[in-house]
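Friendly challenge for the regulars: who can give me the structure tokens for this chain first? No prize, just bragging rights.
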Amino acid sequence: MKTPLKFALLFASQIFLSQISTAQFVQASPPIADPSDTRFVDVREDWTSPSLKTSSLKPAQPLPAYINDYPGYTVELLQVQWRFGDPLDLYVMKPKAVRKPPVILYLYGYPAGTDRFKDETFQKTVTKNGFAAVGFVSALTGHRYHDRPMREWFVSELQECLATSAHDVQMVLDYLATRDDLDMTRVGMFTQGSGASIGILASAADPRIKVLDALDPWGAWPIWFASSTLPPEDERTNFVTPEFLKKASALDPVDWLPKVQAKRFRLQDATFDPITPKAAKEKLRAAVPAGATVTIYKTPEEFNAVVRSQTELEWIQQELQSLSDAYPSSAKIRSPKIRSPKD
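First reply, four minutes later:
Bragging rights claimed.
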């Protein structure tokens, strides 16, 4: 897997990262896909749409790994799967004091793995205000990168990764809806980087995501591939061909942003982040639906101050807590609100 050092270091101080607890069980990478596994022979998946309507995924019975009990919360690890050779580790963190808490899905960008979901500081933070947290990673990321030639990675297989991961979000929601310990009428999604791109696609496809917070989504693919600092220079020519861009264009967040169905939506833009070029960021901001909030961080210091204060979750928690079935549809006719982190 390609993980350029500058990308890995860029957000080294990102949301709640700290050392992994030595007391935590560390999940091993999944085994090589078994060719005799016939559970998914009828699965068909459409990579041209984030919606599940044109795909037929078949969920297998979830496999429990452990349930860890901590003061104030629990952490459950399950393995879920709905396509051949792609088991997915799902972390479900729940506060003990709330019978059916609202739930927030966490999806971070490539190449982030599951380490933060094993971290006790992260677990305490996301559950301390009475919210459940569900974490997983996108396709060809972390433990989901296996059985592929090294030339195939998240960026080279962008259409596949965006589509399958958007489908994963909806399949995870389907699984969570079978449980009786979560308030599935109040579901939020906190996303970052390529995970934010996936969150936008998933929200456009699935109205169950009531609140969406998207930090630095990738998008505007022709600009992004021409100027982003992430693609290696020796591969960039492969990504700017008409054939590649045509496939990617079906899943460009710029086109899907106006279709986001979340009742509350926030775009967070760290303008100093070179992964998404300035011109692409401008297109993404211009596509934000009416009634949404745009928060802009002009310097790393501004962004890191929010991270250190652990206030980045206040918006999504407050918006999710306030939701009701009586939320007026007219709220989306206003213009986007541009805010700084100091507002």
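The chain has twelve helices and ten strands. Residues 1-29, 325-335 have pLDDT under 50 and may be disordered. Your move, everyone else.
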